[in-house]
Amino acid sequence: MASAQQMFNTSSLFRILVEAKNREAIEPVKQMVIEVLQKRHQGEKDVTVVTQDAVLETFDEILGALTYAVSGIAAISLAVAGILIMNVMLVAISERTAEIGLLKALGASRGQILRLILAEAVLLSALGGGLGLGLGELGCYVIRQAFPVLPAYAPVWVVASVFGLALFTGLLFSLLPARRAARLDPVLALSGR
């Protein structure tokens, strides 16, 4: 300690780092440090002891705020993706009006047309969800290669819920175009109106 004070040209210590053996020992070590320093400073409690738990709580608060921000961005992205799916489905239906009219003229019911359009939307959503998950896994792989100590793995429940959310978004936003296609009059649809 004397060498460090001489080297840094100071008469006191600014910081002392103490390591506990395990997480359970942090609080007893903290109390011991406070008691020892209080005795050495003539009973005066003039030190601040910061534990890893306090630092971790701060990081948890920061990560919580970041989680809310990313969730907001994800919600906006889902809305944009849903509108994009709806537009693609509307364009697909308008280009295939004659085909839908032919199906209805051949006896396809509204329910069959609705299921056909929704099946296409599910396939489109599954493709988008799969591509998104693939990009996410690629990003995790890059992070693991760049920082080997960082366990960048997405939990299985997250992967499943993200894929399910992509399918749900596709279904939800394709309901309007599918209902519109199912209501088409066969004669008008065959004439391309």
Descriptive report:
With about 190 residues, this protein is mainly α. The protein folds into 2 domains: about 40 residues, no CATH class; about 140 residues, no CATH class. Helices cover about 75% and strands about 0% of the residues.
Please render the helix and strand layout as text:
Blueprint: H1 2-7, H2 26-40, H3 52-95, H4 97-105, H5 110-146, H6 156-182, H7 186-190
Number of domains: 2
Per the principal axes of the C-alpha atoms, what is the gross shape? rod-shaped
Tally of alpha and pi helices: 7
Q: Would you count the extended β strands for me?
A: 0
- Proportion of beta-strand residues: under 5%
Kindly name the structural category. Answer: mainly alpha
Low-pLDDT segments? none
Biggest pleated sheet: none
The amount of helix comes to over 70%
**Element order, helices and strands?**
HHHHHHH
Mean pLDDT: 85
> In angstroms, what is the radius of gyration?
31 Å
Query: CA-to-CA gap between the ends?
Result: 90 Å
